[in-house]
Amino acid sequence: MIAQPFDDFSRLCVHTITTRPWSIEEAAANYAAAGLGGITVWRESLDGRAPAEVGRRIRAEGLEVVSLVRGGFFPAADGNGRQAAIEENKRVIDEAEALGAPLVVLVGGAVPGQPLEASRAQIRDGLEAVLPHAEAAGVRLGIEPLHPVYADSRSAINTLEQANDLAEAFGSPHFGVVVDVYHLWWDPHLEAEIARCGQGGHLFAFHICDWKSPTEHILLDRGLMGEGCIPLRQIRGWVEDTGFDGFVEVEIFSERYWKQDQHAFLRQIQDAYLEHS
Amino acid sequence: MIAQPFDDFSRLCVHTITTRPWSIEEAAANYAAAGLGGITVWRESLDGRAPAEVGRRIRAEGLEVVSLVRGGFFPAADGNGRQAAIEENKRVIDEAEALGAPLVVLVGGAVPGQPLEASRAQIRDGLEAVLPHAEAAGVRLGIEPLHPVYADSRSAINTLEQANDLAEAFGSPHFGVVVDVYHLWWDPHLEAEIARCGQGGHLFAFHICDWKSPTEHILLDRGLMGEGCIPLRQIRGWVEDTGFDGFVEVEIFSERYWKQDQHAFLRQIQDAYLEHS
Fold first, then answer.
1. Is the model's pLDDT at A4 over the cut of 70?
2. Which of A102, A211, B15, B68 could hold B40 in an S-S bridge, CB 3.0 to 4.6 Å?
3. Least CB-CB distance to A186: which of B158, B218, B234?
């Protein structure tokens, strides 16, 4: 693993959703004051603001915009729905370009009751339709496989192997993969698939948090690093063994943490980042 | 798929946990009266009764004892815990023999925070330690891979591929695999791994229910067949394409259904079995 001095937060990035009670202006100012290197912007935190202006403000604070979250969700019950998803993804790419985000994080999507094979085909078709738009904008797309617990309604892409297959099939420097430990930690092929992802030049981003045991709510009870059972250092080691030296992004959805003082929470994130990642 | 007349429940088996409010005597009498062919006994429903006597009573009702659920849970934080698990599994095998159950369903086990690789090694060691006991008793062991959402605390064996690997490594006619659609429906390799399981002679049992979308509780909100998003007929087709002609076992944990009239629920199960499986 890359050596990490005890007070070096230059590779630490936090997702705006992690500190959801803060506006994006508060998040940018507070992350910068804490010495963080990057910020990943969730679309909901743009909330009507001009992306270009938000991007300028973030950079003026001294932070790097790491990515815009999230596009994708290509499957739909009918062709109109799928076309609307493609148009929406082009808007997300335009927003990322204006914001100055080099990467859009994509979630595949799924329609409850629609066969997963159908959703997977619709995801491939959707990606194919938007990739030229991303290439023209100079924005990269990163597909994030989601935990199989979300296969019913959020993503039919549930393993790193599937994401790697997609990345290799597209073979574009603008298309790659987002590795999130929450979704992938259980996979017996994780080490091999991370190596494969890195070797192919497809490892675009690395997201961390922890899996609490027990987990109270399958969507909104993610843990802080060290609070759960994910072997974070081991997985980070596999990621960095591929040569990855990008940001380590903290993405935590937690009703519990959102209720707490966000300054104290940000300090906890920094401590946990140093101690457990 | 094997043809299934509209009133043929000879291959339908229900797990006693599915109708948890009923005692095992009530379950056996009511399943038999409804024309079911089989019953799978959960250990909790034995509750101090002599297994041999329960087995006689079930057979006197005209039902077949399909399996005893469940053993396994081999990983533990220390050697004493692992040895205790091995002894407990030998007792489960003895109970199955007395009950006249030809199969014990095993869940691998996991210790929160212990690396999954360590739990997997402990599962292999535990299986190796108890398999001779099962062979001597003439009882088969079937490992049931659990959904990755249970990897933290219930099982480090989360895919059919892992279960098949174990079955092939042991190479015993007394060791095989239990396919449960709830745990495996999301897997992009499911069709191929079911075929592999069948070809190896390792497909010992087939469990059904449905995955509700949304799911309210990750353990106790399983759906009745047809209520969710699992392509049950497709998966049953893959299972039967291997030559499997054993019981189709309904295993539903549901606080919602347990609160309802169990006679009405059993009729719903029979209707759903005919209509959706």
1. no
2. B15
3. B158
Interchain contact, A148 vs B152, CB within 8 Å:
no
Please judge whether B151 and A116 are an interchain contact, meaning their C-beta atoms are less than 8 angstroms apart: no
Model confidence, pTM: 0.96
State the smallest CA–CA distance between residue A157 and chain B in angstroms.
Answer: 9
Interface-testing mutation among A152, A184, A225, with chain B (most B C-beta atoms within 10 A): A152
Kindly list the distances between the CA atom of residue B62 and the CA atoms of A191, B31, B42, in Å, as whole numbers in the listed order: 51, 10, 19
Nearest to A148 among B148, B213, B234 (CB): B148
Question: Is B65 in contact with B39 (CB distance < 8 Å)?
Answer: yes
Q: What angle do CA B128, B131, B132 make, to 5 degrees?
A: 110
A2, burial (CB in 10 Å: exposed 0-12, middle 13-18, buried 19+): exposed
Task: Using the predicted structure, report yes or no on whether residue B67 has a pLDDT greater than 90.
Answer: yes
B146 to chain A, minimum CA–CA distance in Å? 11
Cβ–Cβ < 8 Å for B255, B215: no
Round to whole Å and give the CA distance between B262 and B33: 13
Show the 3-state SS of A88-131.
HHHHHHHHHHHHCCCEEEEECECCCCCCHHHHHHHHHHHHHHHH
Contact B269, B14 (CB under 8 A): yes
Choose among A112, A158, A161: nearest Cβ to B229. A112
Question: For B24-43, how does the pLDDT look when each residue is reduced to its tens digit (9 = 90+)?
Answer: 999 999 999 999 999 999 99
pLDDT in tens, A5-50: 678 999 999 999 999 999 999 999 999 999 999 999 999 999 999 9
Give the model confidence (pLDDT) of B185-230 as tens digits.
Answer: 999 999 999 999 999 999 999 999 999 999 999 899 999 999 999 9
Q: A137: pLDDT confidence band, cut at 50, 70 and 90?
A: very high
ipTM of the complex: 0.95
